[in-house]
Amino acid sequence: MKPKKIFHIGLGVVFLTLSAVSSCTSILEENPKDFIGPGQVGSSEEAIDYWVTGVYSKWCDDLFRWDNFPRVLDMDCDNTSGPDWAFSNLGAGNFQGDEITTSIWTGGYNLIHRANLALKYIREIDNCAADYRENAIGEMYFQKAFMYFLLTRAYGEIPLFDVSITEGADFNQPRQSIETVYAEIIRLLELSKEMMYKNTDKRFAEGHVSAGTATGLLAKVYATMASGALPAGEEMIVRSGAAYTMNGDSKELTHPTTKVFAKRQVAGYEVFDANDCYRKAAAYSRELMDGKYGDYALLPYENLWKRSYYNKTEHMFMLQAVSGDSKFGNGIRKWYGGVVDGQGVIQTGQWIGNRSHWYSLFDKEDLRVKNGVQHRWRYYYQIEGNNGFYYPNTPEYTLMATGLDANGNKVADPVAPYDDGVAYIYNVSNECLAFTTKYSDVSDATQDKSDAFWPFLRYADIILIYAEAHAELDGGVSAEALNALNLIRERVKAPLASTTGDGAITSKVELRSAIFEERAKELALEGDRRWDLIRWGLYLDVMNGIEGYDECGVNKARENRHLLYPIPVKEINTNTSINSNNPGWS
Question: Is 186 a member of any domain?
């Protein structure tokens, strides 16, 4: 939704004030005093807007409001790191150490309940155009499907709610099988893609989901099912390894090494037909690429993360936010880029970044690191000493930032933008990571609660899904998959994938691995990496391939229980239909 409308609705109409507790029983109970009643909303297209906005609002004023999102999606994977105090629970595998992991469950079912409630009343509105009502119903179906997809990837078997508690749904819903959950996700998305407007339709509202969004998510859902269903033993090449070696008391970063990992069977996904699922993933992505469900295209990289290009062709579903607002602002900019003062000096934040192994995956001319990573910054505590940090610690950047050669000899003066009189330094710590610029363009970077948008689904993801599907379906090295992969690489000036020359891709495993790595590069810090590792059955081996602690002191060692997040203890204690937690959790 557009931020202006979210803010307006949040001030009064149908905005439910639910407490952020852990059990479905608690979060789904409505207090009539918490919102203006349905009879006061009316029966019109404006009333439909109120209900729809109330559901979109839950993303801001619940899931992202308390800063648990998006870090619950990003911090448990091989590529991210930061201060050990910020990563010590979720990032270190202690999934029951605080409320962060429970936020998916709590916020997820809160949103699903809100969508069910909206569906009930939207269906009763008759003083409106039929297509407008159908579009709104489709948007609610999509919201439910998206949240079920997030929930099942995080928790495995989950409860499903067809209707709201207000309509008589039992609080005590049992968990449903993976197969049943995916069938419901697909049912909802199939309905929504035919009910919603295309983004080219006259009545489509920018910032909303559309028929194309549902089609894209169907492709992603089927690819997730397909990769999970592939048999154990399928190989993937991943660049990994120990984060550092010790030279006396100093840490020296290592370069990742090429390792071949064998896929583990993903529990619950063995019931799916991998080839059939990949055929459907390819078909849905192709329909989207051919324009059947709207207008989608890759943006030039220089425009990709500019606010003026959000919700345009590539950004298919984004969180919308309001700068400086306690409910509808968020901590994305704070956690990923820092809150700054008027001179651009970081006062707090910038706690999540990518590790050096991730940075090492790129060609140096790749725009995703040349322009997509911060190369200099200053923290408030560096002002007195007139210092700042630079990144990365390569001979090229060291020379530019300090004038020192590889042996530490002064051979030149710093060059722009490092020639501003600040003494730039580098160290191996959580202060010097590959911090992204994806969330830098906000209205006011001095605000603790910014209006950073979050990309839930991008067209680039769909192209990579298309490439992945053809890599698995076609014989040998798929030309179709290579062409799709190169659409992503060409945009960022990365070397193109080829079957000849340096880095030639000559086998299905090499192609699969190249696409998997491209996802790690293209979708970095967008909440995808953990789920990609999980669906490919690689999570445990890749995480443990780091051999313990990363360069920031974050423990990356993992066990079988970490494959799923634990269901909140309050849910176990109050839901009479759930009497045990996920394996390994109390």
Answer: yes
Closest CA to 219 of 295, 137, 151, 281: 281
Helix (H) or strand (E) holding 81: strand 80-81
Contact in structure between 246 and 492 (CB atoms under 8 Å) = no
Looking up residue 79, the CATH number of its domain turns out to be 1.25.40.890
Helix, strand, coil share of the chain (percent; to 5):
45, 10, 45
User: DSSP per residue over 59-78, as a string?
Assistant: IIIIIITTS-TTHHHHSSSS
Tokens of 188: 């909802």
Quote the CA–CA distance of 136 and 269 in Å, as a whole number: 32
Q: Considering only CA atoms, which of 251, 310, 337, 328 is closest in space to residue 549?
A: 251
| Structural domain count of the chain | 1
Q: pTM (2 decimals)?
A: 0.94
When pLDDT is averaged across residues 264-277 and rounded to a whole number, the result is 98
Task: Please state, in angstroms and rounded to a whole number, the distance separating the CA atoms of residues 400 and 421.
Answer: 13
> Quick check: is 576 in a domain?
yes
pLDDT, tens digit (0-9, with 9 covering 90-100), for 135-152: 999 999 999 999 999 999
Nearest Cα to Cα of residue 481 among 463, 494, 502: 463
Q: What is the pLDDT of residue 37?
A: 56
Q: Does residue 577 form part of some domain?
A: yes
Helix (H/G/I), strand (E/B), else coil: 246: strand
Q: Is the pLDDT of residue 2 over 50?
A: no
Beta 353-354 vs 346-348: how paired, if at all? unpaired
Whether 174 is in a domain gets the answer yes
Confidence of residue 168 (pLDDT cuts 50, 70, 90): confident
Range of the domain at 61: 1-132+141-192+556-586
The answer to whether 143 and 116 are in contact (CB under 8 A) is: no
Mean pLDDT, to the nearest integer, of 413-418?
A: 98
In 3D space, the residue among 352, 310, 319, 318 whose CA is nearest the CA of residue 335 turns out to be: 352
